[in-house]
Write a structure and sequence with these properties.
alpha+beta, Rossmann fold, Dna Ligase, domain 1, 8-stranded antiparallel sheet, 5-stranded parallel sheet, 21 strands, 27% strand, binds adenosine monophosphate, binds glycine
């Protein structure tokens, strides 16, 4: 079949890498893609929010399956755009409609949804400019720290953790009155701070049945030891050693099933990925957030562990036959180290030539491109997160060492990467999982 994949990050290169391994894939197109996808598929110079040009591409290239990587086109209704047109009745689509994508597109919606369905999450309330004074009063008695979240999409920047009530009050005013995050902060969710260790669980669903994909841990801060500003993600590890069978069974029972049942009872036919950001508080899972897509860089650690045919799984998801598929997961550990541009997550330069790619890469290493561009036969940097280097190993320790070693052999001016990806998890590895 012919497949069109939307997106341009490391997640999409990992999808493309896995899709092109399937005998079911005839031609893969990526819009807009990066230098990594260009090497294994056909990049189309079309933005992923440009639905009309995407529709032309679907027609021109006889696309059978559309796979949506990032959240923005989902929240803007890319699925609805195609399903509402008779001409695209046969197009298979992986990605929820706008109603389902609200799980990520509106924190107010997702919190209300969890409260309605008894899904464990931090207590919260939502305020608007009209209820600002109530919000400020609410903060007076709130335990510290206080978490404030812009309701809408804010490119991963919409969460502020305030250490004092004064800071929380100023932030609330900035968001609601001074539109700190534009339209996204027209509503603000104020919630209780959860303690524990974070991890992410990924669910693939066709609206009826589901598969739980390998879980992963992400490293969000720029600095070692989880210091400094937040980034899109500096690395990932899968599996997560403290997520043992008992914990994952609790996640399935108290979170995954109630989420899918809740969507169904609310009339939302959800087809695609649900990324559940979790806090593990002494063995009890709480939902921090939902995303309507896979994680990045988590995907770069999760997909190399999946042995099943990825196109078969995606197609079955879109067709509503996921129950007929099996999901096989390898026993190795994957560690992903992200190479980022100097200055990231602040200002950084693009266009730096990358060297050391593809030269004697060991068999257990895969280098996924994120912000890269193929230019005159060279590969140059084209974003903050440039490459994601994944190593598979028989233990966390060997995978960690291999990922770090490979990360060190690739170079571009200003390159930075964290040296401690997975280090915090070493304490959990002894006898904690097979
Ligand atoms: P989000 O944009 O919702 O992923 O939030 C970004 C990060 O803020 C999360 O990965 C957590 O580290 C942190 N965070 C969000 N909500 C909470 C919460 N209620 N308690 C503690 N940390 C939180
Ligand atoms: N790595 C976090 C995310 O994809 O949102």
């Amino acid at each position: 079949m012919n497949i069109l994949l939307l997106g341009s990050g490391g997640r999409e290169h990992a999808f493309a890498w896995k899709i092109t391994q399937s005998p079911l894939c005839r031609c893969l197109f990526v819009a807009p893609g990066n230098a990594g996808t260009a090497a294994i598929a056909t990049n189309l110079p079309i933005g992923y929010n440009d639905f009309e040009r995407l529709a032309e591409a679907v027609r021109e290239h006889h696309i059978d399956l559309l796979v949506v990587g990032p959240e923005e086109p989902l929240v803007r209704g890319v699925r609805d755009y195609f399903t509402n047109q008779e001409a695209f009745r046969h197009l298979l689509i992986v990605g929820p409609d706008a109603a389902g994508a609200q799980l990520e597109g509106s924190k107010d919606f997702s919190k209300r949804f969890m409260h309605r369905h008894g899904i464990p999450t931090a207590a919260s309330r939502t305020f608007t400019a009209e209820t600002l004074s109530e919000g400020l009063t609410y903060l007076e008695t709130h335990a510290l720290p206080i978490v404030l979240k812009a309701d809408g999409l804010a490119a991963g920047k919409g969460v502020i953790i305030a250490e004092t009530r004064n800071e929380a009050g100023e932030t609330l005013k900035d968001m609601l009155v001074h539109a700190k995050f534009g339209e996204a902060s027209r509503k603000v969710v104020i919630e209780q701070f959860l303690r524990g260790i974070e991890l992410s669980v990924f669910v693939l669903t066709d609206g009826t049945s589901y598969k739980i994909l390998p879980e992963a841990k992400d490293y969000k801060r720029i600095g070692e030891g989880d210091t400094g500003p937040n980034t899109g993600g500096m690395g990932a590890v899968s599996p997560v050693p403290f997520a043992d069978e008992e914990f994952l069974a609790k996640v399935e029972q108290t979170i995954v099933r109630p989420t899918l049942d809740g969507l169904r009872t609310e009339g939302i036919h959800y087809v695609g990925f649900i990324f559940i950001g979790l806090m593990n508080d002494h063995g009890t899972p709480y939902v921090i957030e939902y995303n309507a897509r896979m994680g990045d860089p988590e995907t770069e650690a999760v997909l190399p562990r999946i042995e099943s045919d990825w196109v078969a799984l995606l197609t079955a998801t879109a067709r509503g036959t996921l129950h007929e598929e099996s999901l096989t997961i390898g026993s190795q550990t994957a560690v992903t180290t992200v190479l980022v541009a100097g200055g990231y997550p602040g200002e950084y330069e693009k266009g730096q030539e990358i060297s050391g790619l593809g030269e004697n890469t060991p068999e257990n290493i895969t280098v996924f491109h994120a912000g890269t561009l193929a230019q005159d036969g060279r590969v140059v940097t084209n974003g903050g997160r440039v490459l994601a280097v994944t190593a598979l190993g028989d233990s966390l320790e060997t995978a960690r060492a291999a990922s770090q070693e490979a990360a060190a052999t690739i170079n571009f001016a200003g390159k930075q990467f964290r040296k401690d990806i997975g280090k915090d998890l070493m304490q959990f590895t002894v006898n904690s999982y097979q």
